[in-house]
């Protein structure tokens, strides 16, 4: 079932008038960097994979998520390939022994 679009009131706190040149107006301070870092070591084990998959679902094509994991994330990578075959290019940036950093770049 596709998500329905929502409309937000222009009168909400932090809203920017339509004529404003500012593209990002939520005042969260993020920078739209092409790579986002997610340290999975801080996520409770019971919800770790679900949290990572949620984050990956928000990544647009051409952008990447740098995942920091407490171990080689081979089970997660296999799960990702089964559920979203070919959607992400995988490259290791760091390989242990205390942390593994894997760049997951959305290709489509």
Structural summary, described in words:
The longest helix has 10 residues. The chain is globular, with a radius of gyration of 17 Å. Strand 1, helix 1 and strand 2 form a beta-alpha-beta unit. It is 19% helix and 24% strand. A four-stranded mixed beta sheet has the order 1-2-4-3, with helices on one face. It is an alpha+beta fold and 108 residues long. The protein has two helices and four strands.
Helix-strand topology string: EHEHEE
- SSE class: alpha+beta
Output the number of helix runs: 2
User: What's the β-strand tally?
Assistant: 4
Q: Biggest sheet, strands in spatial order?
A: 1-2-4-3
What is the CA-CA span between the terminal residues?
A: 20 Å
Q: What fraction, in percent, of the residue positions are helical? A: 10-25%
Largest sheet features: 4 strands, mixed
The radius of gyration computed from the alpha-carbon positions, rounded to a whole number of angstroms, is 17 Å
Residue stretches low in confidence (pLDDT < 50, at least 5 long) are: 18-22
Shape: globular
Assembly category: single chain
Assess the beta-strand content as a share of residues. 15-25%
The overall average pLDDT, rounded, is 82
């Amino acid at each position: 079932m596709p998500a329905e679009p929502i409309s937000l009131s222009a009168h909400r706190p932090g809203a920017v008038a339509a004529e404003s040149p500012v593209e990002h107006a939520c005042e969260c301070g993020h920078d739209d960097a092409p790579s986002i870092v997610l340290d999975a070591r801080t996520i409770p084990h019971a919800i770790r994979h679900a949290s990572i998959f949620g984050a990956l679902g928000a990544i647009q094509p051409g952008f990447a998520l740098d995942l920091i994991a407490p171990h080689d994330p081979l089970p997660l990578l296999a799960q990702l390939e089964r559920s979203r075959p070919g959607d992400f290019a995988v490259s290791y940036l760091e390989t242990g022994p205390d942390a593994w950093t894997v760049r997951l770049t959305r290709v489509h």
